[in-house]
Amino acid sequence: MGALRLLLLQAMSFNICAESAPTVRLANGVEMPMLAAGTWQYNDSQAEASVKAALGAGFRMVDTAYDYHNQAGVGRAIQSSGFPRGSIFVETKVPGCHLDDAVKDCYEDTKKVLHEDLQLLNLSHVDLVIIHFPPRASMILRTCYFACQQVRDQWRALEEFYAAGKARAIGVSNYCPSCFKCLDEDHKVYPMVNQIGYHIGMGPDPSGFRSLAEKKGVVLQAYSPLGNKPWKQGADPDILKGNFTTALAQAHGKSTIQVALKWLVQHGVPAVTKSSNPEHLKQDFDLWSWNLTAAEMQSADKYHTFGMPSFACNWEDEEVVV
User: Fold this and answer.
1) Which terminus of the chain has fewer CB atoms gathered within 10 Å of its CB, N or C?
2) Radius of gyration (Cα) for the chain, nearest Å?
């Protein structure tokens, strides 16, 4: 991205109080925090403990999903936190179509799952609900080209959920250009968020995902902000312990994890991070009182390690026949 854009983003972050996270405005005017506490791979009790610790560390956004199977714990943590419901931004996800072979009607099944998810959270509404990934067919064929009707059917269920006041905002995750094309001419409300795999080492515009989102007025949100090398079964060791991120961390008296998160939010990209350790959560949240320099950001933009925005489809596929 241009130097002027980078300077503007840095100037914005200098105005942020160290005790509070900035927000990004979605297309409908809803303000979404720039940092969320994730709960992936946590069971109910672990999710409850982690969310309580995150709220205590300053987080005011929580990310869960129907297929994390921990919504009850997340809901308990929110309700027992002592914070007003309106001060906690709750994001959840529903699975893409036909993950289960028994599902015959994508629209009806999505309506059912949305209702069940809300019940499990024990909330009257969520702040953001997103489709976790495109239909299963797209993961097999690596494109939404042949699954457009399923994409539209599922999105219609989210539009109705939103219109009923059950969600303040709606979006998608792991959606590639072909998936967006399915909705371009057939929507009442356009996706407001696309949550993708995004981390330092992928460059400022991985596979054009960021420029596509900006063109369409969609906010990108990053999951796996520490990388995710499948063959390493976890965060990318090059990010956690590599020479480049270690040098940046030492220059600012921070951790490599803080550097990775800071690179994203300083680019204006919200992120989902997670930890079960209260001290680590406090460190993760300590992003607003310092900045990487312009030179450091430019170097970080050129740094490279493995990453892909979507596990579900090929991000280069832009052509869809309607």
Assistant:
1) C
2) 19
Helix H or strand E encompassing 306? none
Beta partners for residue 172, in sequence order: 131, 194
* Residue whose token pair is 């052509």: 319
Six token digits for residue 231: 């063959």
Q: Is 68 a catalytic residue?
A: yes
Checking phi first, is residue 223 left (phi over 0); if not, alpha (psi -120 to 50) or beta? beta
Give the tens place of pLDDT for each residue, 228-262: 876 667 899 999 999 999 999 999 999 999 999 99
Token pair of 192 as six digits? 């407001």
Question: Residue 10 above 70 pLDDT?
Answer: no
**Of the candidates 214, 192, 191, the residue with the CA atom closest to the CA atom of residue 267:** 214
Among left, alpha and beta (phi > 0; psi -120 to 50; other), residue 101 is alpha
Residue 11 corresponds to which tokens in the numbers above? Answer: 């100037």
Tell me the per-residue pLDDT of 174-204, one tens digit each, with 9 for 90 and over.
999 999 999 998 999 999 999 999 999 999 9
Burial of residue 187, with CB atoms counted within 10 A of its CB: 0-12 exposed, 13-18 middle, 19 or more buried: middle
Q: Which of the residues 68, 162, 175, 223 is marked catalytic?
A: 68
